[in-house]
Amino acid sequence: MKFGKVDHPELIDFTIPQDHPDTPVVLTKYPQDGETNVFVGCAKWNRQDLKNFYPRGTKDELTYYSSQFNSIELNATFYRIFPPDTYEKWYDKTPEGFKFFPKMTNEVSHLRRLNEQVYPVVDRYLEVTSLLQEKLGTIFLQMHNNFGPKNWDRVVRFVEYWPKEFPLAMEFRHTDWFTDEKVSQELYHLLEENNIANVLVDTAGRRDLMHMRLTNNEAFIRYVGANHESDYPRLEDWVKRLVNWKRMGLKNIHFFVHQNLELESPLLSAHLIERLNPELGTDLTIPKSTLSPQKDLFK
């Protein structure tokens, strides 16, 4: 994942900003009782990317991956809409309780940019994606860097069209969505009114995306490590923030770990889960790896 990559991550201030003032307000609108649902995963299960994760002799990558993680940020669906039997196979290969968080096809977000021609594509995408049944988590839509507020009407129409039975998260990357307070407030209000999660992106070169504004009872976090020793302290800070949000009433944590070079994403995920379990009272499996944390990661 090259987005937000910098040559010298040691020069970046990775401090997580304070919560947006409206984040605690949003969380107080939801019931304070009940369990917190925590899903942590990588962006892909490809053996070539996740080297040193799969034991020798592993025959099916997804089957093994889903024995170690309870979720996957499914980036493959960004590049194509797969045939129905592919989704059925994914469903059959994964255990009960596993969830997929698929990315909306780039035909909607990048090629057609939410114009009036996207709606048949959305229908086709949802028709096959729904075959994941109860294992379907939140679908997320990531807009292009140059998709700015001038396209506001397209965003409104898309949100109004989206079937509410499918949980949705949206990620905006154009700077003007966040630097213009009037624009950002209108966007947050639209997402909040339609129960759409506002994706939080933690990456080195785009700290402006760390707006810390939740728009519903879901923290959808896309964390991009820098293949640098700072990756671990950054995760520690996220644990603290998530614990605080849980105290405020947060019930859904969806945290996906990337790296500019994906080699050790499972290690970072394991570190995060190991810290989250005692703090949140969860019992997530801690993924195994043939590498030992930090010792081999930055040698």
Automatic annotation (TrEMBL):
InterPro entries: DUF72, UPF0759_sf. Signal peptide: none annotated. It comes from the Bacteria. PANTHER family: UNCHARACTERIZED PROTEIN YECE (PTHR30348), UPF0759 PROTEIN YECE (PTHR30348:SF9). This is DUF72 domain-containing protein. It comes from Flagellimonas iocasae. The lineage of its organism: Bacteria, Pseudomonadati, Bacteroidota, Flavobacteriia, Flavobacteriales.
